[in-house]
Amino acid sequence: MSIHRITISSLSVSIGLLLAVPALAQYGGGSMGGSMGGSTTSSGSNGVYTAPKGGYSSSTAIAIGTGAAAGVTLGYLALRSHRTIVGCIEPSRDGVKLLNEKDQNTYALVAANVALNPGDRVALRGKKSKDDSGKPTFEVSKLVKDYGACAQ
Prior knowledge:
Layout: H1 3-25, H2 58-79, E1 83-92, E2 95-100, E3 106-110, E4 120-130, E5 136-149
Parallel strand pairs: 3-5
Antiparallel strand pairs: 1-2, 1-4, 2-3, 4-5
Helix pairs in contact: 1-2
């Protein structure tokens, strides 16, 4: 697991917990006290939690649910897959293709705003998909690194 994913995961969990703290602060959660003799606290309770007289309003549940949903959404957005592939760009009938060094698959490259030169070994960031005929394609969003000419 890369350091980037670990950082993003930690940040997502931290934000989720941070959003949940205000909701938890609403619950007094009766103190257990330091002695076993049934001593009372300054509020007159025996260290046992008692719910408010009218119960909790639905806004408490909504706040907790909203905080949890926000944390999950941020985690998903941070970790959704934008893959990086490395390989040599080769000319083809339909444009250019890349042989991925890791999985040995050949991908037709869809690069709208990225200039790709056949014969170069590159690292590309983007999204794997398939075209209408079922052939693997790679939608390039960024040229991560150009390693120069491919070794023949």
